[in-house]
Structure formats: C-alpha cells, structure tokens
User: Fold this.
Amino acid sequence: MSEAARNTQGRVTVLHHLSDELLMSYAAGTLSEGWSIGVATHMSFCPVCRQRLSEFESIGGHFLECEEVEGDETSGWEEIQKRLDVPSSNVTDIAVRSDALMPQPLFSYVEAAGGLRWRSLGSGASQMKVPTSDPSTIVRLLKIPAGKPVPEHGHSGREVTLVLAGSFGDSVSVFNRGDVELADDDLTHQPKATPEEDCICLAITEAPLRFTSRIVRFLQPFLGI
Amino acid sequence: MADGRKALEPGDINALMAAVAERQDVDAYQLLYKHFVPKVRAYMSKIGSDRAFADEMAQEAMLTVWRKARLFDPGRGQASTWIYTIARNVRIDALRRGPRPTFDPNDPAFVPEDELGADVAFERQQDADRLRVAMASLKPDEIKTLRLSFFEDMAHPAIAAALDIPIGTVKSRIRNACLKLRAILKDA
Ligand SMILES: [Zn+2]
Assistant:
C-alpha cells in the first residue's frame, strides 16, 4: 500500500505553505487541536514546513537553555536513576496506516469516526465533519465537483484549507494536493474546483460563538459597535 | 551557574546526548539531567503553581529523554531543541487539551525530504550559535513576546492581555522578530 500510494499520487510539490504564525504556535504548543490537524497534515506533505518548524522549535530550545536557575535545583537524581531501565527497546517503529488520500494525522481522525462518510450539501458538493475534542474549531472534509465553486463553509475569522485531491483556484492562484490556503475575514473571493477532477480538501474554521455572539448582537445597538 | 561549575556549552550538550543515544551512557545522562532538570522544572511550573506537579512533570520529561534517546540524531539538530520538544509534549499532555496531532515519518503517505547535502548538516551544527546571535539582535519587546509564547504557554490573545497591548501589536512583533531571525540565520 505504501509504495502504491506514493506512486499513484506521484510527487507532491507544495507551493502554498503555512504561515509563520501557525507554525510558531504549533512549535510553542499553543495551537489548538483543530488547527493542529491541518498544520500537521500539511507537514506530512511538506519537508519545507518541517524544516521551518524545527527552526521555530529551536527558539523554544533557546529559551529553555537561557532559563536561569538559582541554587541547587537538581534534586530527584536518586529517584530517576532507579527508573533508568534499558531504554528504547519499546520505541520501535510502530506500523502507521494511511491511504492514498489522507496522510496522518488526518487519517486517524477519519478512521476513528468510522471512515469517510459524505453528506450532501446540495449543489453537488458534500462534506464530512471530522470529530475532535477542540470546541474552538470546526474541522471538515469538503468534496467539490469538478468545475464547481467551493461552498461557503466559514462564517468569519480564520480559515485553513488543505487540498487532498484535485485542485481549486481563482484567477490569481491554483491550489493543488498538499497546498494550504490561509484566509481571514477580509477575504471575499470564491474559488472553484478546477475542471479536470473533483476536489477534496480539509477545511478548518473557527467555531461560531453561539451564545456570546447572540449577546453581542443584542447589545450592539447599545454599545455602538 | 550558582555553584560555580562550568556551564555546559551547546557542543557539550550535543556530545552528551549523542552518548546517551548511541550507548545509553548513564554518566552523560546524569550531566544532562543536572543541567536540564531545573530548566525543565521552570518550564513546567508555568502551567501550575504546584511545585510537586512541576517536579513530577520535569521527571516525566527527563525520563522520556532517556527512553527516547535513540531517536535523537545529532546531525539533525540541537539537543536542547530536542529536549524542548519532549518537555513541550509532556506539558501539552498534562494540560489535557485533547490529543496533539502530529505527522509521522513512518506514515506511508509521508513525503520525505531530499537527501541533505553535507553543507546543510554542517550548517545545522552551527545553528545554536547563530540563533543566539540572532536572538540577541531582537528588541526586548520582541523577545518578551516570543518568550511568553514559547515558555509561558500563552496564545496571542493571552499575550495581548498580559502586556496590555492590542493583538495586532503582538502579531506585528512576532512578524518582525521572524523577519529579523530569518535574515540573520540565512546569511550568517
Ligand atoms: Zn509547507
């Protein structure tokens, strides 16, 4: 399967990469699970962003190294010494699965949800919501028929879209397998799947703020915002 | 250091870590442990005020360093960076924010990097020194912002609140810091 997957997909050459902001938050460990699925799945495709990630992680290493410590804080050696078993015999390469469409970590999430199950959105497009434990984001797969517009799937705010199959684009740029499109509220274009084949992508958006937004909307006339 | 011992240099740290990776050298590990455990404990203490908890998390991280040592590749990066990523992962797990999605080089769909030339491997040996120079060129505000992100477990809105600045300022500081670091690291 592994070689077959690589052969049928051919070589993935990524042209559209992650932002510094996303990579840095991922490196710092502050990026929430939903965004991290998109970031990590892009990196399965992309040696360039993996290299950038290790540069950001070296900033973390630098801060760790710079941490000044006072006094004798090295207690605990006697205890840990007793726990130094023969290391790494169980750090073997565990067989990891994926398919020709989805690398890790996305594959595991979809598998845990019982595999791919599309629901029609009307107009020929379909989606599958990918369950996560992150309430701040919505993670979904979108399938857009060849030549059709990508359905509106976010409300506002940040959006990360990763192409898994086919491609989509507008007059300015085209996004192919492995490419990631980053958007925020001020983006108002509507790209289309390219005519050759259906486009499947992973889309992560901010979850709508259900209660607060209603309160804010109610208060808006009074607050003048 | 407070007790007058000579601090470990990045080169020493890498050599010690390689000794642990290649032959489970307990003496090398002990030196690394004494060097890093207070730092890792300080890192852990940022997510909880409980000293015992920080102790426990630091022990957990340092034990993971021992157990996963085989995965450390001195040609691929600095030991301090590698230890940071282990401590970070232990801290994320402790925060129980849900799983930590990662890519996996054993994934059949994983796209490997092209073979690195010898010069790239050599460059990576110099990375720690260059990074130190590059970090020294940042403004204090930029360093403070980066540190809150990497060390204090703060997302951008939390940094904005802690420093009492708009989130746009947080973002522009980080953007400027990235530009400067990249410029220096590229043509060092
Ligand atoms: Zn990339």
